[in-house]
Amino acid sequence: MARNEIALATFTENRAALVDYAAGIVGSRDSAEDVVQEAWLRLDAVAGARTLDHPLGYLYRIVRNLAFDLMRRASFERRHFESGPGSERVAEDRPSQEDTLRHRQELEIVMLALQELPERTRIAVELHRFGGCKLKEIAERLGISVALAHALVYDGLDHCRHRVRRGM
């Protein structure tokens, strides 16, 4: 008997048991059928290249590995691509309408909070957050010490944070 014929005979005689074995791992008879079919393709490719000492044991190992791979892939996809209560939608590349609305409301509150600040504090915060200026640059522009620039930025940001918390 040729190597491939031995592999085919082993597969044919044990196919039902292999499907049962795979179904116990993946939890679905349909998925188990797919796993066993893929196992046969892999066994056939290997058996054509070399003689297997224990083709049935090799076949069970292939089925087990493919079944576990299928379960890992399914688990990964559930975690990263399915949405449900409390899960994020990874496949979506833009914020939801609710998030967009909430962020717009927060921005409006921050802009109003900035207008409530004393002029020098407002300018310091705007230079720091919107202009990307370092505290040393802010101090030079406003003619104040770096420590005072730091205090103005800190106080301004703190005021904006409190207003957002109260406003939302």
Q: What labels would you give this structure?
A:
168 residues, mainly alpha, Arc Repressor Mutant, subunit A, 2 domains, 7 helices, rod-shaped
Molecular structure report:
- This protein is mainly alpha-helical and 168 residues long.
- It has 2 domains: 3-81; 97-167, Winged helix-like DNA-binding domain superfamily/Winged helix DNA-binding domain (Arc Repressor Mutant, subunit A).
- It is 79% helix and 0% strand.
- The protein contains 7 helices and no strands.
- Helix 1 (3-26) runs antiparallel to helix 2 (29-49) and helix 5 (119-129) packs antiparallel against helix 6.
- The longest helix has 27 residues, at 55-81.
- It is rod-shaped.
- The relative contact order is 0.08.
In brief, what are we looking at here?
The longest helix has 27 residues, at 55-81.
List the helices and strands and how they pair.
Blueprint: H1 3-26, H2 29-49, H3 55-81, H4 97-116, H5 119-129, H6 135-142, H7 146-167
Count of the domains? 2
Q: For the report, how would you describe the main beta sheet?
A: none
Classification by helices and strands: mainly alpha
Q: What is the overall number of helices?
A: 7
Determine the strand fraction and express it as a percent band. Answer: under 5%
Total beta strands: 0
Order of helices and strands: HHHHHHH
> How would you describe the shape?
rod-shaped
What is the mean predicted local confidence, pLDDT?
Answer: 86
Helical content, roughly? over 70%
Low-confidence stretches: none
Radius of gyration: 32 Å
- How far is the N terminus from the C terminus? 78 Å
